[in-house]
Amino acid sequence: MRTKEELSGVSLLGNNATVYPTDYCPELLETFVNKHPENEYLVTLNCPEFTTLCPKSGQPDFARIVISYIPREKMVESKSLKLYLFSFRNHGDFHEDSVNIIMKDLVRLMDPRYLEVTGWFTPRGGISIYPFANYADSEHEQMKRERLMAQMNRVADNERR
Q1: Is residue 125 part of a domain?
Q2: pLDDT tens, 129-156?
Q3: Is residue 4 part of a domain?
């Protein structure tokens, strides 16, 4: 069981008076302490209902956002992440920008060993866009390059089907 001190930075989880943001709000993100910083392990978060707006037309864009990271000392709290991702609902930016913003906000929040964000956007105008952004500390630079290449191959294979 976690102590009150360990949960001191977690204010949204269990809060019955949740306020849903109407504008992009990285301040919503909260962390908790990783109890296993000596272990290198992967955490994957899947948001199948991400929405944002086209910056030109204002039309909605829909995606599945997948975030995977190797934590160091801090981990992102999932309800705060849900509300943060919800805050993109009225945010007008291109798909590539949204994925890079999410990556940078999470790196700044957690200082992970490795982090990647993939956006699987539904087609608009007959074109699907799948942006991928990743970050690595100095010990995981090779993994960063390998994951980027693997993602390029995965997208190419997916498009051939």
Answers
A1: yes
A2: 999 999 999 999 999 999 999 988 887 7
A3: no
pTM recorded for the entire structure: 0.88
CATH of the domain at 136: 3.30.1130.10
* pLDDT per position as a tens digit, 23-57: 999 999 999 999 999 999 999 999 999 999 989 89
Our answer to whether residue 25 is catalytic in this structure is: no
Number of domains in the chain: 1
Alpha carbons within 13 A on the beta-carbon side of 50: 27
Catalytic residue (choose from 23, 25, 47, 61) = 61
How far lies 57's CA from each of 8, 65, 124, in Å?
Answer: 42, 22, 12
Residues 85, 50: contact at Cβ < 8 Å? yes
The reply to whether 55 falls in a domain is: yes
Is residue 47 flagged as an active site residue? no
Exactly one of 54, 97, 111, 137 is catalytic; name it.
54
